[in-house]
Amino acid sequence: MGFCLEHKESRRENWLVRYTRACAEDYLGRVAAPCGTWVVSVYRTGGQRRHLVTIRMNRRKEVAPDPSEKTVPVRR
Fold this sequence. Notes:
- The chain is α+β, with helices and mostly antiparallel strands.
- The protein has a domain of about 50 residues.
- About 30% of the residues lie in helices and about 25% in strands.
- It has a two-stranded antiparallel ribbon.
- The radius of gyration is 17 Å and the shape is elongated.
């Protein structure tokens, strides 16, 4: 589930692509989806189903950060 704020028409498509990619990356990561090319479509539901955007994205294997790049927790 997600939402989309109303944007000027010139920015609407860019926002939808950006938001769709972020949601798809989050979801695919949570379900441990395999690497590869994914096609993600978003539809508005509730009454008449309406297509909003479709993107193609490449999911790559996540690389663990180098131990030297890990941050040290801040003590409070």
